[in-house]
From TrEMBL:
Cofactor: Zn(2+)
Entry keyword set: Metal-binding, Transferase, Zinc
Protein name in the entry: Uncharacterized protein (DUF849 family)
Coiled-coil blocks: none
GO molecular function per UniProt: 3-keto-5-aminohexanoate cleavage activity; metal ion binding
Top-level taxon in the UniProt lineage: Bacteria
The keyword Zinc belongs to this UniProt entry's keyword annotation: yes
InterPro entries: Aldolase_TIM, BKACE
Amino acid sequence: MSRKTIISCAVTGSIHIPSMSDALPVTPEEIARQSVDAARAGAAILHLHARDPRTGRPSPDPEVFAKFLPTITAETDAVINISTGGSADMAVADRLAAAKAHAPELASLNMGSMNFVFAGAADRVQTWKHDWEEPYVRGSSNRIFANTFDQIERTLRELGDGLGVRFEFECYDVGHLYTLAHFLDRGLVRPPLLVQTIFGVLGGIGADLDNFRHMATIADRLFGDAHQLSCFAAGKHQMSFMTAAGLAGGHVRVGLEDSLYLERGRPAASNAEQVDKAVRILRELGREIATPNEARALLALRGRNR
């Protein structure tokens, strides 16, 4: 249990599409503005994807990242976390491109191949803004999100060994924790580990609070003092799991990548609005909110100036 709670904000992701919410940031200017506002609201870590500014489609292009990263780093001291997940229809080389080009302090790393299905969300869209959106969403039921052991090792070696990047290890099921333990035993990852447990994605472990307790127990058994546990859940489960993680002394993640709502029936107006709510709840639970530099210390990050 950490005395301080790290709040991560996943700003745009690759699951939700522009037709689902006008609040979803798409252009570099929107991503930069919402990231800055989320950091000012209390997010110590910004988990970042990029999108084609014309269509809103997830983009792996390092040059698109380069259009919003300078603004974020100039206006905040937040930890930059670049996704290596990208989207399930990207090649591994594309998924690694932005992190290799920009060498952030932190990068996400998915710990196993899985079905990652969000096709059902298509039934709730009334009007499609772009031609790519409907086949992308409905097609998720026929795609495998590949994260093989060779791909994981490649990521660890090219980003970790090669550039000094550390990782947010994304674990969508119990087996992913054991996969992480395998790479720890081989010496390819080094503590402290940021273990991000994820619930409610169809194809991964379900959004049942008993599953959170089980994942936390197994992570503690496997990693002990060598890890920092974080948690988030997709969609309507976002805030209840955030609260459970806070009660357990863990870290939390919110953001429009994970849920487009602030509460049942009320869409979120921005990422910062979700961060504000997380801060209020955590403080009511007696938790202190970690600053970016406190997060760096807990996670042994190299620091902005390095």
